[in-house]
Every structure is written in C-alpha cells, then in structure tokens.
C-alpha cells in the first residue's frame, strides 16, 4: 500500500480530504458558485503551472515567466490603447515573448548558464526593459472597446468562466504535446538524463530553445487571460512572490525537480489543492500574511517530500547543479 | 644567419611570451577580472558624475557598505561550499525587526542583544543548513522557500509590533556609535566588516574548516571519500551566513531605526550578483572573500550611481540584470575554457640553433659511426621491471634500480635473478647514488631528493629550493629532480630537468628550446637546498669528476656536456666539454679507465633541429594541432658513448634493431660489465666490456675500497 504512494496520490488524497472537511465545516464552500470561482481563481496559476511544468520536466526552471507575463500583456494593452488593431498588437506581443524565450534558451543551451540563474536574471532584465521602453506606467487598464478579446478572461461559455476553459485548453494542448509529439518526448529524455539524450542524438540545444519559447508563449496567454479578467494588469507583479506559487503548484503536484518525471495531470492536482486551500482560508477569514505563511510552509513540506521521494541522483547530477 | 632569423632570435630573446601562460596558470588571475571591472566602473562614473570621487560622496556610500560586506562574507562561505543562500534578504529584515524590538524598544544591553540577534539569524541559517546539508535538499529552492516563509513572518511581525517599534528609542551611546559612529573617519560597520573579512579570509584559506569548505565545493564526492564530514560542513556554512546577516542587520537597525516592509527586499539578488560578479563560482570551490568583496563594491557603486544619475527603477533593474547575466556568462565560459586557453598559451617556444648534425653513418669514419655491439646483450629482470631509469650497485654487488611504480628494486648478487622491493617511495625514482655510509640517494620525479638507508628506511632530504626573485611559476618546489652525484664533502648536486612542466609532460619541454631546468646543491650540513646553476636546457646526467672539484653535466635538449667547477682554484668556471652531440645526452657515469660513459636517450633529426630555429612554427603547431600530432624529438633509438675529460669521443655502442634497448637513459660500469637502464624499458641490459678492469667498481672509485 505504502509502495503505491507517490506524491501525486498523497496530494490528491489531501485535496479530497480538505475538500470534504471544508464542505462539511465551512458554510457556502460547496455551492456551485463558490466551486466555479475556486477554479477560476487558480486557473491563471494553473496556466503558468503548465508552463513551469514543461521547464521542470526538461530539468530546467523558468523564473522569468512572472516578468514575461505582465510585461507582454501590459505592452499589448498599451499598444491597443494607443490605437493599434488587436491582431497586430497580439503579433507584436507574441514576437516579444518569442524573443524572450529564444534569449532564455540560448543563455541556457549555448552559453550554458544554469537555467535557474539565466531566468532569474532575465526576469529582472525583462521587467526593467518593459518599464524603461514598453510600458512607462505600472498599471495598464483595458480600453472601453467591446470586443471578443475582452471576453477571453471575463466571459462565460455554457456557464463556465472562460479562464477555466483557457486553462483546460492549454493543459490539453500541453498534454498532447508532451505525450504524442517528438519534441515533447525529447523534453522527457533531456530531463531524465541530459547526457544520454545528447549521446542518442537528440538535438538538445535547439530543443531547449523550443522549450523556453513555448513557455514564454504560455506566459503571454496567461497574461492576456489575467489582463482581460481583471480589466488591466500591473507590471509590478514581476516583483511579487507569485513565481513561487507557480513552483509550488508544480512541485506539490509531484513533478520532481530532478526532471524527466510527471506530467500535466500533476499540475492539475497541485492547482486544485492550492485552489481549495486558498478558498478555504479565505472563507475562514485568515489574514493575507497568515495565508502566505501557511502556503509557504506547505511549499516547504512539499519539497521536503519531493526530496525524500525523488532523491537526487548523485551519479547524473551535474557539478554546480544547485 | 639570415636577417629574418636574427630578428626571430632577438624577438624571442627579449619578449617574454612565457609570462602569459604562467600568469594564466596562477589562481589569482581570477581576481583580475573583477578588479578590471571595478576600475572601469570607477572610471565611468567619475567621468559621468562630477564629485563622484570626492570624500563626502565616498563617505556616504561607505556608510552602507559595511552592512553589505558583512553579509557577503557569509555568502562567500555558502557559495564556496557549493550552495547558495537566498534567505539573506528575509533574514536581514527579520533580524532588523528583532534588533529594533529588543534593543531599540526594550533597551536590551548591547552585549547581550547583539549575540542574541546574531543567534536568531544563525537559527534561520541552521534550518537551511539542516534541510540542505542533512536532508540533501536543493539549496536554491530551499532557501527560496525559507525566504518566503521568513518574509511572511516579518510581515506578520510588522503588523503586530509596528506601533511598539516606531515608539521605541534607545539613547545609549554605544547604540548610536554602531549607527553613525566612525573610527578615524571610517564608519564603525566598515571597520567591523574589515575585521570579519580578514578573519573570514584566514579561515577560508589557512584553516581546517575553510579547507573543508573549499573541498566540498570543489568536489563533493571526493571530499566525502576523503573523510570530510560533508553534511556538517554544508550545514555550518548556512549558519555562518545567518550569523553574519544578523550582525549586519543590527548595524542597519542602529543606523536607520526603521522597520519598513521593503527592508532587505531584493538583497538576495544584489548579493548573488555581487558574489558572481566577483568570481565566486556557482557550484563552489573557486573564489575568495576578497573577490566577493570586490564584487559587492562594484554592484553597490553601480546601484548607487545609477540612482544618482536619475535613471528610472526600470532602467536600473535592466542594467543590474544585464550585469548579472554578463557576470554569470563570463564566469561559466571562463571556468569551462580556462584550461583550453592555458593549454594553448602555456607552451612558449623560443629560438635555439644547434650546430650542424655530426655524421653517424657506418663506415663514414665519424667517431659516432653505427655498429651493432649492443645487439643481444643479456637482460636482467626482463618483464619484471617498468622504467628503470638508473642502475647502481652496492658494495656487495647487489643491483638497484627504480621503477615507474615508485619502488626501488634490488636484484641480489651474484646472478641478479632474484629480486625484492627494497623500498617504496612513490613518484618515479630516477637518478641513484650511494653515499660513503652506504645510504642510497635518489632523485624522485615529482617529489624531490630522498635517502634510503641500507635497511630500506626512506627519508626526505629536500623537496624545495630557494625561490627566485622574479619567477611567476612557483619554482621553489621541486617538480622533476632527475639525476644526482655526491661530492667528496657530502654535498649533493642534483639536476631538476624543468620547472615549467610536470613529470608526465617532460617531453613537451623540448618544444620550448629554453633553459627551463637547473642544478641544485643540497648541503647536508644545513639541510638546505640552493639553486646553483639556473636556466639549463633540461639538465640531466651529473657526474663528479675524480678530482672532486668539478662536475660534468649533460643538457639533454642542448645536446652538450659541460664542466662546472664547484670548488678549487677555478671555482665557478663553466666550460663546454662536448658541444655538438648527435643525440640527446642523458646520464653520465665514470668508466674504469678514468674516462666517462654517457647515454644518449634519443637521436637528433634534421627536422627537429630546423624546427628549433622556427619558434613561430612550433607555436602554431601547439595551438592548431592536437598534442598527439606535435613534432617531438626522436626518442626511439639511442646509443652509449665514451668520452674523456677533454671531450674526445673514444667509443660508441649502438643497438641497430632497437629491440632490446631502443632508448638508453643510463649506464653503469661494474666489474667489467656495462649495465644499461631505460626510462621506458622493461629490463636492465648487461654488456661485457672487452678489456675493462674486472675488479673496478663505481663505489670504490668514489669512496675508496672497503676498509
């Protein structure tokens, strides 16, 4: 019985237990409206979690998505507010995030900077670049125009909030990519054993660039959803600790930081647990600081469990892999 | 000599190319990079900002430096052990809060309060250390999560105690001194930082714990295998970081007495940038406290000056991020390519012209004319030996030789069939000599000069000599002691083949054509060694002449044999005995008729002689071609020559097929036979010398008959 316990199942069990507990103890938790808003609240986190999962499965990490997301979305809004057609503005933003992804990938694959540092520094650079050249003001709001575009984050389809649908679509696309496409399988191979992947002929370096470009594009999608859901976006989000929440979702779901393990299902499970937890704590009227203490302690426990369940392989761990 | 050749000769004589490679091989070269960056930063901002270098501006900046420099010492320890500490930002805020609460508001005694606050920081570090060191968690994520947790606790603390703190005021002079006091114009925090840096540097470079830290960072598994307690060492580094952060936060609290929500925010990124910019390697093992401090000074100068230049927060974080990226990129590429650059730059050929090659063809009438007299000589220890560079006999006719495995092997008289390992030294024992007391002295390649007593007890006589004043490579340590001989007064003269290459690379020295070797004198009366003849072209064989006042030495790459008077009326005089050998001379030893034997370990070839006159060609070869394809001197065939004190060649012995003795490095005459050793050979050869004195022994020739 204990043998079959992996982190995903533990987390899933905890999620179910919490769900039952909250349903019984907290009035209003089990209502349909609350459950939908529960999922809606974490859907952006979930989308970013999918992006982070792709990075971590390939034995990387991307700390820059929390800069790429608000900066690209804010720039898009700035362009649209300046009178540019939405389509063209989207292409511009897409070009920007692809450039960020290529730079990230190049720094990691060719300059050989550890992913954690390359993306940490790139996060600062992207935020600084955005503030200096793209969106001079912190908070950019959506314009007044009536467009399908604004419905991406705030509309409903068949009664389901559209962010949830976007999360589902992104998760499904990423699932198919990782499971059925060659580059997806390559990412697993690279995460499992980068040297072996290289020896067997996988084009590791171009694959890393592709990986980070995909991650950046998903970050843009998350940014658009967030901006349209909240009618605006604040670039100072880049300075917040939200990136740790994203890592929390991924690691909590059971994707080992050593790479090569886990899948999109783990992200969904992790996202659900966080959603239930945040929703429950909010209903219990805990203060923001207490919530963040509890959340981060859970994150710590999650990575302790990750270390115990997926111990680092000293044979294939690279020097300087911290 | 053509004009171009004269120019080449002049250019290689006076332009010291070898310094480039030697400087690159030093470990302090890494400090140069941040040093240059700091100079550039200072130059840039002093041009852009008027009054930048004025005392008041620097004084203002210096006020905040102390706190950061204290933290960076702790960070250095963590990073040198291969970790990373991102918690410092939050620990700093937490300790700041604690300091304000305990010392400022509750007016706790400083002598009690400061250690207490340091311990609070240390406790947070201990949690990190336990998780990372003992549980084996990843440093980056663990300290990141701790950063969030502690930050959340700080936020909660600010809500709970913010009012209390803002009302508090500690009027004690010591507290005020910590905040704004100066010692001879230097802020108190900076003085403390300097003291801590000094202690940190000494601990890291001179003490056991520091060495353990470096070893763990350099190679975790090797450190573990060497018996270092890796987990404890890693854990302690995080504790040190926490303690230092606590101390820094106390100074900060004393200076500003403010507990805003943004205290210490982004500090971890600043510190990381500083450490990496200073050249502390990610992953550990490389770096120093001084480098980290240089990095911190650069980052703080840039941050401060960017703000003073009126840049927006966006631009300054853009610049900071780009600096971090550039620093990590330089660091990663430097670590990866340093040895390649070094390999390309280290070999530094120079001009050397040998006289025309003497004739060796059979029937040419040359004294070196080929013959086949060494064909079919008897073999001793065939297949048992590996690399007997030199051969020697004791008074009881037992034969001794060295081996590649670091042993001295003894073959018992009279038939030299039975053998035993007489002593194990290590390295590769090369030249051998007996002293009057019957001790065997040997030059051990890679180790130095050693003595083996008749009972097999090994004593180190010398492994260092005086360091020359202007050398960049450390030439005090003996790298490749080669051959030796003992003067009548007991002084030992021994050659060191090269100071620029290790034993396994000795043949690369031939590509340089420079005098990299030396002769050293070990004096048993003082126990000291001193270099007596520097700058020789791979000095090899040494033989004290029967007069006891002069010695002959062979310079292998110089293809000459020289006499040097170390005593007597001509003391200090050096005269060339043979200046144009057809091959590369190795060991020289006495012959029974008062003349000398010399082994030629390889023969010259016109191609290599020509290459020696073309240093540019050899440089290009070293840089462009793999080292297996370099042009080396020929070491596949050799011979033995006999010459008298005037340098006349009396006899020559060849082995034409090269089957038994392709390369001869040593010869020893003993009771009418000549014994041949070879550093790459698997036997000792025994050749009957027609007409030689059947009773003559080398030992008696040096120290007289047994009395």
Automatic annotation (TrEMBL), chain B:
Positions in coiled-coil regions: none
Domain Strictosidine synthase conserved region: 482-566
One Pfam family here: BPD_transp_2
GO molecular function: transmembrane transporter activity
Transmembrane regions: 28-47, 68-90, 110-132, 139-159, 179-204, 235-254, 266-285, 317-335
Subcellular location: Cell membrane
Gene3D superfamilies: TolB, C-terminal domain
Highest taxon listed in the record's lineage: Bacteria
InterPro entries xref list: 6-blade_b-propeller_TolB-like, ABC_transp_permease, Strictosidine_synth_cons-reg
UniProt keyword annotations, A-Z: Cell membrane, Membrane, Transmembrane, Transmembrane helix
Record membrane topology: Multi-pass membrane protein
Major place of residence: membrane
Signal peptide span: none
GO CC term, one of those recorded: plasma membrane
Protein name, as recorded: ABC transporter permease
């Amino acid at each position: 019985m204990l043998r079959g316990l992996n982190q995903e199942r533990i987390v899933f069990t905890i999620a179910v237990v919490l769900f039952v507990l909250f349903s019984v103890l907290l009035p209003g938790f089990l209502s349909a409206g609350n459950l939908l808003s529960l999922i809606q609240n974490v859907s952006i986190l979930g989308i970013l979690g999918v992006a982070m999962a792709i990075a971590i499965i390939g034995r990387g990490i991307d700390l820059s998505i929390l800069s790429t997301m608000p900066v690209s979305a804010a720039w898009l809004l700035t362009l649209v507010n300046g009178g540019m057609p939405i389509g063209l503005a989207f292409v511009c933003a897409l070009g920007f995030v692809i450039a960020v992804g290529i730079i990230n990938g190049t720094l990691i694959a060719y300059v050989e900077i550890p992913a954690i540092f390359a993306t940490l520094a790139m996060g600062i650079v992207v935020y600084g670049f955005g503030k200096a050249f793209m969106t001079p003001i912190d908070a950019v709001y959506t314009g007044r125009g009536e467009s399908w575009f604004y419905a991406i984050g705030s509309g409903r389809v068949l009664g389901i909030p559209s962010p949830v649908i976007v999360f589902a679509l992104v998760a499904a696309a990423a699932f198919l990519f990782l499971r059925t496409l060659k580059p997806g399988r390559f990412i697993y191979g690279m995460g499992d054993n980068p040297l072996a992947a290289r020896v067997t002929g996988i084009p590791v370096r171009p694959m890393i660039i592709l990986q980070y470009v995909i991650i950046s594009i998903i970050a843009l999608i998350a940014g658009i959803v967030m901006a349209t859901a909240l009618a605006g976006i604040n670039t100072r989000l880049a300075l917040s600790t939200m990136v740790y929440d994203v890592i929390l979702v991924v690691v909590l779901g059971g994707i080992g930081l050593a790479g090569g393990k886990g899948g999109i299902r783990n992200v969904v499970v992790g996202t659900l647990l966080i959603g239930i937890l945040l929703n429950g704590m909010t209903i219990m009227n805990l203060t923001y600081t207490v919530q963040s203490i509890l959340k981060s302690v859970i994150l710590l426990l999650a990575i302790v469990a990750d270390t115990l369940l997926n111990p680092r392989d000293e044979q294939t761990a690279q020097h300087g892999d911290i | 000599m053509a004009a171009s050749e004269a120019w080449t000769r002049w250019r290689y004589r006076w332009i010291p190319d070898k310094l480039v490679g030697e400087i690159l091989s030093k470990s302090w070269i890494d400090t140069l990079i941040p040093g240059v960056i700091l100079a550039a930063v200072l130059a840039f901002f002093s041009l852009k900002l008027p009054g930048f270098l004025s005392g008041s501006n620097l004084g203002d900046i210096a006020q905040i430096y102390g706190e950061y420099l204290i933290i960076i010492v702790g960070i250095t320890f963590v990073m040198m052990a291969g970790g990373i500490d991102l918690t410092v930002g939050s620990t700093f805020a937490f300790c700041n809060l604690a300091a304000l609460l305990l010392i400022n508001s509750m007016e706790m005694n400083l002598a009690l309060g400061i250690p207490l606050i340091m311990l609070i920081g240390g406790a947070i570090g201990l949690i990190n250390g336990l998780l990372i060191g003992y549980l084996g968690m990843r440093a980056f994520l663990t300290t990141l999560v701790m950063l969030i947790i502690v930050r959340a606790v700080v936020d909660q603390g600010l809500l709970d105690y913010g009012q209390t703190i803002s009302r508090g005021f500690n009027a004690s002079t010591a507290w005020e001194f910590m905040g704004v006091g100066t010692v001879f114009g230097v802020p108190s925090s900076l003085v403390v930082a300097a003291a801590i840096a000094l202690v940190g540097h000494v601990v890291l470079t001179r003490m056991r714990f520091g060495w353990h830290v470096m070893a763990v960072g350099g190679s975790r598994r090797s450190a573990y295998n060497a018996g270092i307690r890796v987990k404890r060492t890693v854990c302690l580094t995080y504790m040190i970081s926490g303690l230092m952060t606590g101390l820094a936060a106390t100074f900060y609290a004393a200076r500003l007495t403010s507990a805003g929500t943004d205290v210490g925010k982004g500090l971890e990124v600043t510190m990381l940038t500083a450490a990496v910019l200073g050249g502390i390697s990610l992953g550990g093992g490389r770096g120093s406290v001084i480098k980290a401090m240089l990095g911190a000074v650069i980052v703080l100068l840039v941050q401060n000056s960017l703000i003073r230049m009126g840049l927006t927060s966006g631009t300054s974080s853009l610049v900071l991020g780009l600096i971090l990226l550039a620093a990590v990129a330089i660091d990663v590429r430097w670590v990866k390519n340093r040895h390649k650059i070094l390999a390309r730059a280290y070999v530094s050929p120079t001009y050397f012209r040998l006289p025309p090659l003497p004739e060796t063809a059979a029937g040419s009438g040359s004294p070196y004319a080929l013959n086949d007299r060494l064909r079919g000589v008897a073999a001793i220890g065939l297949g048992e030996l590996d690399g007997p560079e030199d051969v020697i006999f004791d008074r009881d006719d037992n034969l001794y030789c060295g081996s590649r495995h670091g042993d001295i092997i003894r073959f018992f008289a009279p038939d030299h069939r039975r053998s035993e390992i007489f002593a194990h030294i290590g390295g590769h024992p090369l030249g051998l000599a007996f002293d009057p007391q019957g001790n065997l002295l040997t030059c051990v390649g890679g180790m130095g000069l050693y003595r083996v007593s008749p009972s097999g007890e090994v004593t180190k006589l010398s492994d260092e000599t005086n360091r020359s004043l202007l050398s960049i490579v450390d030439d005090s340590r003996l790298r490749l002691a080669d051959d030796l001989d003992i003067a009548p007064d007991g002084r030992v003269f021994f050659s060191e083949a090269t100071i620029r290459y290790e034993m396994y690379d000795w043949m690369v020295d031939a590509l340089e054509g420079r005098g990299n070797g030396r002769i050293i004198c070990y004096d048993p009366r003082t126990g000291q060694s001193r270099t007596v003849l520097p700058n020789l072209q791979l000095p090899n064989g040494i033989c004290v002449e029967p007069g006891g006042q002069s010695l002959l030495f062979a310079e292998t790459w110089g293809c000459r044999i020289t006499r040097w008077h170390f005593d007597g009326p001509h003391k200090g005089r050096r005269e060339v005995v043979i200046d144009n050998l057809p091959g590369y001379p190795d060991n020289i030893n006495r012959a029974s008729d008062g003349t000398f034997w010399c082994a030629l370990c390889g023969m010259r070839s016109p191609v290599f002689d020509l290459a020696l006159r073309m240093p540019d060609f050899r440089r290009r070869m070293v840089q462009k071609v793999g080292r297996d394809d370099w042009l080396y001197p020929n070491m596949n065939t050799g011979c033995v020559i006999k010459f008298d004190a005037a340098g006349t060649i009396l006899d020559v012995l060849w082995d034409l097929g090269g089957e038994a003795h392709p390369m001869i490095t040593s010869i020893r005459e003993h009771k009418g036979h000549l014994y041949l050793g070879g550093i790459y050979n698997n036997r000792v050869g025994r050749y009957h010398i027609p007409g030689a004195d059947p009773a003559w022994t080398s030992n008696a020739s040096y120290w007289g008959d047994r009395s």
